[in-house]
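Example (one chain per record):
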Amino acid sequence: MESKQPDAIGAAPGPEEAGLEEARPADGAAALEAEVERLNAERADQARSYVRLAADLDNLRKRTARELADSRRYGGLALLTAVLPALDNLSRAVAHLPPGDDDQLATGLRLTVRQLEAALASEGIEPVPSVGVPFDPQLHEAVATEPGGPIEQDTVVAELRPGYRYHDRVVRPAQVRVARAGEPLPAVGADAEAG
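Predicted structure:
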Protein backbone atom coordinates (compact mmCIF):
# COMPACT_ATOMS: atom_id res chain seq x y z
CA MET A 1 0.00 0.00 0.00
CA GLU A 2 1.09 3.35 -0.88
CA SER A 3 0.95 6.12 1.62
CA LYS A 4 0.17 9.57 0.51
CA GLN A 5 3.00 11.89 1.19
CA PRO A 6 2.74 15.59 0.91
CA ASP A 7 3.96 16.69 -2.42
CA ALA A 8 6.51 19.03 -1.10
CA ILE A 9 7.34 21.00 1.93
CA GLY A 10 5.64 24.37 1.75
CA ALA A 11 3.35 23.26 -1.03
CA ALA A 12 -0.02 24.96 -1.14
CA PRO A 13 -2.67 23.15 0.89
CA GLY A 14 -5.65 21.62 -0.75
CA PRO A 15 -9.00 23.34 -0.89
CA GLU A 16 -10.28 21.57 2.21
CA GLU A 17 -7.27 22.51 4.28
CA ALA A 18 -7.33 26.12 3.00
CA GLY A 19 -10.94 26.59 4.15
CA LEU A 20 -10.06 25.44 7.63
CA GLU A 21 -7.09 27.72 7.92
CA GLU A 22 -9.05 30.71 6.65
CA ALA A 23 -11.76 30.07 9.24
CA ARG A 24 -9.29 29.71 12.09
CA PRO A 25 -7.67 33.14 11.76
CA ALA A 26 -11.06 34.82 11.58
CA ASP A 27 -12.22 33.00 14.73
CA GLY A 28 -8.88 33.66 16.42
CA ALA A 29 -8.97 37.37 15.50
CA ALA A 30 -12.49 37.74 16.88
CA ALA A 31 -11.46 35.96 20.05
CA LEU A 32 -8.38 38.15 20.37
CA GLU A 33 -10.43 41.29 19.78
CA ALA A 34 -12.91 40.18 22.44
CA GLU A 35 -10.03 39.47 24.82
CA VAL A 36 -8.50 42.90 24.08
CA GLU A 37 -11.87 44.59 24.73
CA ARG A 38 -12.28 42.65 27.98
CA LEU A 39 -8.78 43.58 29.10
CA ASN A 40 -9.32 47.24 28.16
CA ALA A 41 -12.59 47.30 30.13
CA GLU A 42 -10.86 45.66 33.09
CA ARG A 43 -8.01 48.17 32.87
CA ALA A 44 -10.51 51.08 32.75
CA ASP A 45 -12.32 49.66 35.80
CA GLN A 46 -9.04 49.33 37.66
CA ALA A 47 -8.05 52.88 36.66
CA ARG A 48 -11.40 54.22 37.97
CA SER A 49 -10.97 52.19 41.13
CA TYR A 50 -7.44 53.53 41.56
CA VAL A 51 -8.64 57.13 41.11
CA ARG A 52 -11.42 56.56 43.68
CA LEU A 53 -9.00 54.98 46.14
CA ALA A 54 -6.49 57.78 45.63
CA ALA A 55 -9.22 60.37 46.25
CA ASP A 56 -10.40 58.48 49.34
CA LEU A 57 -6.84 58.33 50.66
CA ASP A 58 -6.35 62.04 50.01
CA ASN A 59 -9.64 62.84 51.79
CA LEU A 60 -8.58 60.63 54.70
CA ARG A 61 -5.25 62.45 54.96
CA LYS A 62 -6.98 65.85 54.90
CA ARG A 63 -9.60 64.80 57.45
CA THR A 64 -6.95 63.32 59.75
CA ALA A 65 -4.84 66.49 59.51
CA ARG A 66 -7.92 68.64 60.22
CA GLU A 67 -8.91 66.46 63.21
CA LEU A 68 -5.35 66.57 64.55
CA ALA A 69 -5.25 70.36 64.22
CA ASP A 70 -8.66 70.62 65.94
CA SER A 71 -7.47 68.30 68.68
CA ARG A 72 -4.42 70.45 69.27
CA ARG A 73 -6.37 73.69 69.11
CA TYR A 74 -9.36 72.58 71.21
CA GLY A 75 -7.58 70.08 73.45
CA GLY A 76 -8.33 72.08 76.59
CA LEU A 77 -12.07 72.08 76.02
CA ALA A 78 -12.82 69.40 78.61
CA LEU A 79 -10.76 71.21 81.23
CA LEU A 80 -12.47 74.49 80.38
CA THR A 81 -15.95 73.09 80.82
CA ALA A 82 -14.89 71.61 84.17
CA VAL A 83 -13.37 74.91 85.41
CA LEU A 84 -16.20 77.24 84.32
CA PRO A 85 -18.63 76.36 87.15
CA ALA A 86 -15.91 77.01 89.73
CA LEU A 87 -15.13 80.37 88.11
CA ASP A 88 -18.87 81.19 88.10
CA ASN A 89 -19.10 80.43 91.82
CA LEU A 90 -16.02 82.50 92.64
CA SER A 91 -17.39 85.39 90.57
CA ARG A 92 -20.73 85.20 92.41
CA ALA A 93 -18.89 85.23 95.74
CA VAL A 94 -16.94 88.33 94.69
CA ALA A 95 -20.14 90.02 93.44
CA HIS A 96 -21.71 89.54 96.87
CA LEU A 97 -18.80 91.03 98.79
CA PRO A 98 -19.68 94.31 100.40
CA PRO A 99 -18.29 97.30 98.49
CA GLY A 100 -15.08 98.55 99.98
CA ASP A 101 -14.41 95.24 101.74
CA ASP A 102 -10.63 95.09 101.59
CA ASP A 103 -9.89 92.34 104.07
CA GLN A 104 -7.50 89.59 103.03
CA LEU A 105 -10.21 87.09 102.10
CA ALA A 106 -12.04 89.55 99.81
CA THR A 107 -8.78 90.66 98.21
CA GLY A 108 -7.75 87.03 97.73
CA LEU A 109 -11.05 86.14 96.07
CA ARG A 110 -10.86 89.12 93.70
CA LEU A 111 -7.26 88.28 92.76
CA THR A 112 -8.13 84.62 92.23
CA VAL A 113 -10.98 85.49 89.87
CA ARG A 114 -8.77 87.91 87.91
CA GLN A 115 -5.97 85.34 87.73
CA LEU A 116 -8.33 82.62 86.46
CA GLU A 117 -9.81 84.99 83.86
CA ALA A 118 -6.31 86.00 82.71
CA ALA A 119 -5.19 82.36 82.49
CA LEU A 120 -8.25 81.46 80.43
CA ALA A 121 -7.74 84.48 78.16
CA SER A 122 -4.11 83.50 77.56
CA GLU A 123 -5.34 80.13 76.25
CA GLY A 124 -7.85 81.73 73.85
CA ILE A 125 -10.92 81.56 76.08
CA GLU A 126 -12.94 84.77 76.02
CA PRO A 127 -16.26 85.79 77.54
CA VAL A 128 -19.14 86.22 75.10
CA PRO A 129 -20.25 89.89 74.91
CA SER A 130 -23.79 90.22 76.22
CA VAL A 131 -25.33 93.30 77.83
CA GLY A 132 -26.26 96.00 75.32
CA VAL A 133 -25.70 93.89 72.20
CA PRO A 134 -28.40 92.45 69.92
CA PHE A 135 -29.55 88.96 70.90
CA ASP A 136 -27.71 86.29 68.90
CA PRO A 137 -28.95 82.70 69.34
CA GLN A 138 -25.46 81.44 68.49
CA LEU A 139 -24.00 83.31 71.47
CA HIS A 140 -26.91 83.80 73.86
CA GLU A 141 -29.54 81.69 75.55
CA ALA A 142 -32.61 83.78 76.34
CA VAL A 143 -34.09 82.67 79.65
CA ALA A 144 -36.42 85.64 80.16
CA THR A 145 -37.76 88.76 78.52
CA GLU A 146 -38.63 92.06 80.09
CA PRO A 147 -40.16 95.34 78.95
CA GLY A 148 -37.60 97.29 77.02
CA GLY A 149 -39.00 100.80 77.07
CA PRO A 150 -36.64 102.91 74.95
CA ILE A 151 -34.30 99.95 74.41
CA GLU A 152 -34.42 98.37 70.97
CA GLN A 153 -36.25 95.03 70.67
CA ASP A 154 -34.14 91.88 71.08
CA THR A 155 -31.35 93.70 72.87
CA VAL A 156 -29.74 91.88 75.77
CA VAL A 157 -30.52 93.82 78.93
CA ALA A 158 -29.02 91.53 81.59
CA GLU A 159 -26.58 88.65 81.79
CA LEU A 160 -27.56 85.90 84.23
CA ARG A 161 -24.63 83.61 83.52
CA PRO A 162 -21.59 84.49 81.39
CA GLY A 163 -20.93 82.63 78.19
CA TYR A 164 -17.52 81.71 76.82
CA ARG A 165 -15.91 81.24 73.43
CA TYR A 166 -12.86 79.05 72.87
CA HIS A 167 -11.03 80.43 69.83
CA ASP A 168 -13.91 80.47 67.32
CA ARG A 169 -16.25 78.00 69.05
CA VAL A 170 -18.91 78.89 71.59
CA VAL A 171 -18.30 76.63 74.58
CA ARG A 172 -21.24 77.88 76.58
CA PRO A 173 -23.81 80.47 75.50
CA ALA A 174 -24.50 83.33 77.89
CA GLN A 175 -27.82 83.11 79.70
CA VAL A 176 -29.50 86.48 79.23
CA ARG A 177 -32.69 88.51 79.59
CA VAL A 178 -33.86 90.18 76.39
CA ALA A 179 -35.89 93.37 75.89
CA ARG A 180 -39.38 93.13 74.42
CA ALA A 181 -40.39 95.91 72.06
CA GLY A 182 -43.29 98.23 72.52
CA GLU A 183 -43.70 97.73 76.24
CA PRO A 184 -42.88 100.68 78.45
CA LEU A 185 -40.83 100.13 81.56
CA PRO A 186 -43.02 99.68 84.64
CA ALA A 187 -43.31 102.74 86.84
CA VAL A 188 -41.51 102.51 90.15
CA GLY A 189 -44.62 103.08 92.24
CA ALA A 190 -47.10 101.37 89.89
CA ASP A 191 -47.40 98.21 92.00
CA ALA A 192 -48.07 100.21 95.17
CA GLU A 193 -50.77 102.31 93.49
CA ALA A 194 -52.50 99.30 91.91
CA GLY A 195 -52.75 97.46 95.28
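Caption: The chain has a mean pLDDT of 81.
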